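thought: user wants a sequence for this fold. calling inverse folding tool.
action: design(structure=
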C-alpha cells in the first residue's frame, strides 16, 4: 500500500488495473494480489521497516508494485527504496516520459517528448561510498591518495569530504544491453548513451566506451540493418537538446546520477513530475518493483485529494512488463480520454482550461467507467 497517501492511491490503482484486466481478458487472466508489508505499517505491526518475508516474497513472486514509503529517520538503513534495490540487485531504474494531452506543461511542444530513461541503479557516486570532512576516515583517504597514489590535486585537504564513484564494465553492459533490447522490442529508433566522459574519462568515459562496444558486439545485426541506432551525448548538451529537440531521442541509457537529473527534468517537461511512473528491474532474474515515484505526501494524506496517476502509470508499466499489453493500452486510453475531458485530481485539473477536479476515489471511478465503455 505504502505510507501516507499510499493508503489512498494504491486502492485506486488496484480498482483501475482490475477493471482493465477484466475488460481485456474477460476472466481468462486475473491478477491475484498479495499484500506484503514495508514502511510504517510493517514497523507498527512487526517492529521492523522491512520484514524478511517482504524481501522473500519479492524473491519468490518476482513482480511487485509499491506505494511511497516513509524513509525511517535515524534507523539502520538509508532508505527502504535503496535497500530494496540493492538487496534484489534491481539494476535498471526505468522511467518512461510521455505527455498526456490536456496536462499543463511549461514547454511549447510537450507532445514531442517521448522517451524511456534507463538509469543505472547500483553504481556511480550514488553507491554511498563517502567520508565526511574532518573525520579520521577522510584523512586516511587523503593520506592514501597523497602518499601512495601521488595525487596532489586536492585543493583543500583539511576540509575536504571524499566520495568514490565506481563504474564497471559489467554494470554498464547489463544496463546498455537492457536498453538496446527494450528499443528493439518496442521498435524504438535509437539508444543514446548520456555521459560526462569528456571530463570523467575512465568512469563516465568507460560507460560510453563499454556501451558502444557492447552494442557493436551483441547487436551487430540490428545495427547493420538499421533496426537499431546507437549514439551518445554529453550530459550537459543532452539537457539542452532534450528541451530544444526532444524528438531526436527515444531510449536513454545513462549512469545513476545523470539519470536522476535527466528523469526529473524530462518529467517536468511533460508536466508530469507528480505523476511520473517508475520501475526498478533486474532483467536477468526478471524481478521488478514498480513504484509511485513521489513520496508519502503527509501534508495531503487522508484527504482524498492525492493524485493516483504515478502508481497507476507504474501499473501500466507492470502490465507491459508482463506482456499484458492490451490492459496497459486500455488504461492509457482511459487516462488520455479523462485528461482531454478535463477530469483529473485537483493538482492537475486546476491548470486545465476545462478542468473538473475529482477526489482520488472519484477519479479512479471515472477511469473505471471509461475502461468499461
Ligand atoms: P513528497 O513527494 O511526499 O511531497 C512533495 C510535494 O508533492 C508535497 O507538497 C505533496 O503534497 C505533493 N505530492 C506528492 N505526491 C502527490 C500526489 N500523489 N498527489 C498530489 N500531490 C502530491 O516528498 P517529501 O515531502 O519530501 O517526502 C515525504 C516522505 O516521503 C519522506 O519520508 C520521504 O523520505 C518519503 N519519500 C518516499 C519516496 C518513495 O517511497 N519512493 C520518494 C520520495 C520521498
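)
observation: tool returned 373 residues.
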Amino acid at each position: 500500500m505504502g505510507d501516507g497517501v499510499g493508503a489512498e492511491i494504491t486502492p485506486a490503482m488496484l480498482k483501475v488495473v482490475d477493471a482493465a484486466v477484466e475488460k481485456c481478458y474477460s476472466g481468462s487472466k486475473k491478477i491475484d494480489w498479495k499484500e506484503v508489508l514495508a514502511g510504517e505499517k510493517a514497523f507498527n505491526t512487526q517492529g521492523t521497516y522491512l520484514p524478511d518475508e517482504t524481501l522473500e516474497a519479492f524473491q519468490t513472486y518476482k513482480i511487485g508494485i509499491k506505494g511511497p514509503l516513509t524513509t525511517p529517520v535515524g534507523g539502520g538503513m538509508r532508505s527502504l527504496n535503496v535497500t530494496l534495490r540493492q538487496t534484489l540487485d534491481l539494476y535498471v531504474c526505468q522511467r518512461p516520459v510521455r505527455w498526456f494531452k490536456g496536462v499543463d506543461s511549461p514547454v511549447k511542444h510537450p507532445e514531442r517528448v517521448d522517451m524511456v530513461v534507463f538509469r543505472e541503479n547500483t553504481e556511480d557516486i550514488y553507491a554511498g561510498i563517502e567520508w565526511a570532512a574532518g573525520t579520521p576516515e577522510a584523512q586516511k583517504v587523503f593520506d592514501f591518495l597523497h602518499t601512495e597514489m601521488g595525487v596532489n590535486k586536492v585543493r583543500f585537504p583539511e576540509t575536504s569530504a571524499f566520495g568514490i564513484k565506481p563504474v564497471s564494465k559489467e554494470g554498464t553492459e547489463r544496463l546498455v544491453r537492457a536498453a538496446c533490447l527494450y528499443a528493439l522490442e518496442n521498435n524504438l529508433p535509437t539508444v543514446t548513451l548520456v555521459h560526462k566522459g569528456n571530463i570523467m574519462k575512465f568512469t563516465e568515459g568507460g560507460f560510453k566506451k563499454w556501451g558502444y562496444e557492447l552494442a557493436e558486439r551483441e547487436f551487430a545485426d540490428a545495427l547493420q540493418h538499421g533496426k537499431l541506432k546507437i549514439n551518445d551525448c554529453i550530459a550537459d548538451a543532452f539537457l539542452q537538446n532534450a528541451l530544444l529537440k526532444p524528438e531526436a531521442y527515444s531510449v536513454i541509457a545513462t549512469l545513476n546520477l545523470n539519470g536522476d537529473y535527466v528523469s526529473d527534468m524530462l518529467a517536468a517537461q511533460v508536466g508530469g513530475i507528480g505523476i511520473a511512473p517508475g520501475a526498478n528491474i533486474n532483467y536477468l532474474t526478471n524481478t521488478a518493483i514498480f513504484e509511485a515515484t513521489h513520496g508519502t505526501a503527509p501534508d495531503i494524506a487522508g484527504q482524498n485529494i492525492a493524485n493516483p496517476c504515478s502508481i497507476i502509470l507504474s501499473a501500466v508499466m507492470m502490465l507491459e512488463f508482463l506482456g499484458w499489453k492490451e490492459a496497459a493500452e486500455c488504461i492509457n486510453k482511459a487516462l488520455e480520454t479523462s485528461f482531454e475531458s478535463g477530469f483529473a485530481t485537483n493538482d492537475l485539473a486546476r491548470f486545465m482550461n476545462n478542468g473538473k477536479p475529482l477526489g482520488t476515489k472519484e477519479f479512479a471511478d471515472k477511469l473505471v467507467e471509461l475502461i468499461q465503455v
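thought: summarizing for user.
answer: Here is the designed sequence. The CA atoms of residues 181 and 219 lie 9 Å apart.
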